[in-house]
Amino acid sequence: MKALTKTDFHFEGQKSVYHGKVRDVYFIDDLVVMIATDRISAFDVILPKGIPYKGQVLNQIAAKFLDQTSDICPNWKLATPDPMVTVGLCCEGFRVEMIIRSILTGSAWREYQKGCRELCGVKLPDGMKENERFPEPIITPTTKADEGHDMNISKEEIISQGIVSAEDYAVMEDYTRRLFARGQEIAAKQGLILVDTKYEFGKRDGKVYLIDEIHTPDSSRYFYADGYEEKLAKGEPQRQLSKEFVRQWLIDHNFMNEPGQTMPEITDEYAESVSDRYIELYEHITGEKFSKCSDNDDIAARIERNVSQYLAEKKQ
Question: Are 178 and 73 in contact (CB under 8 A)?
């Protein structure tokens, strides 16, 4: 099974390129060409093997939800010329990720277990159980790091340090709550609970835009609604759709990217099983059958051809 783990394109009009953990972003004239590769990251490290069709899954979920939320706030998307590519408007990104949580789980639960009762300036009630709903969703932003770990930060610190102005932060906060509410509505129709997610915003011509991905299993956590209350009452793990199963596999193999730890071997069989899980995620989240790209033999050549054709047509 083929997987795209690196790109090295030279498109006409290309000014620069940024290689992220999962996405490669090409800046061309006034556009952004974002390629969702098949790389997978966990604990802020890129795993040594790609996951076939993962990029297509992420890109197509994000494109669908960008379209379904464009009435709430403007977003960067213009087109998807390839199943793994979105082309959009170039915005100046804020150095903050807006994380919103409706349930105490994941890293927030790990901190809560240690006795933490305040997260990013938000007070947490005593006596909560793992996977219990918050009285209302909480926003727990992080600073966006180029390398290493993103760091938790409070709204007050973001504004006082001048990372984002009070006016822009208020807009981002409002968009975050409304986008999350829409995401929860869409998830509920599929028998899912949108547990938590992250949004990134940027600015263009004085206006705040939603940028990057939205409501994908890499940026979000979903629980199955059926059985949620029973499992919560019994203290059992929730059935979930997210990248958490990869993190858990790494934890079970004694890897959390801490000093002295060694990355476990990613076999072809394991990579294929992760691919199957991502396709399952796609079908549950969207309610649609996933259609694998038939021409997956030379993914890079296909992407180069499709993007070049789109850019040439846009110039005409």
Answer: yes
Question: Do 23 and 76 form a contact (C-beta atoms < 8 A)?
Answer: no
Is the torsion defined by CA of 173, 174, 175, 177 positive or negative? positive
What percentage of the chain reaches a pLDDT higher than 90?
A: 86
Nearest to 19 by CA among 37, 2, 4, 3: 37
How do residues 250-293 score in pLDDT, each as one tens digit?
A: 999 999 999 999 999 999 999 999 999 999 889 999 999 999 98
Bridging pattern class, strands 45-46 and 41-42: antiparallel
Angle, alpha carbons 193-196-200 (nearest 5°): 130
Contact, 300 vs 7, CB < 8 A? yes
AA letter at 169: Y
**Rounded distance, CA 49 to CA 40, Å?**
8
The pLDDT score that the predictor gives to residue 293 is 85
CA distance 25 to 22: 10
CA neighbor of 34 nearest in space, from 314, 313, 310, 316: 310
Q: Per-residue pLDDT for 109 more than 90?
A: yes
Q: How far is CA 113 from CA 116, 124, 312, in A?
A: 7, 12, 55
CA–CA separation, 165 vs 172, rounded Å? 10
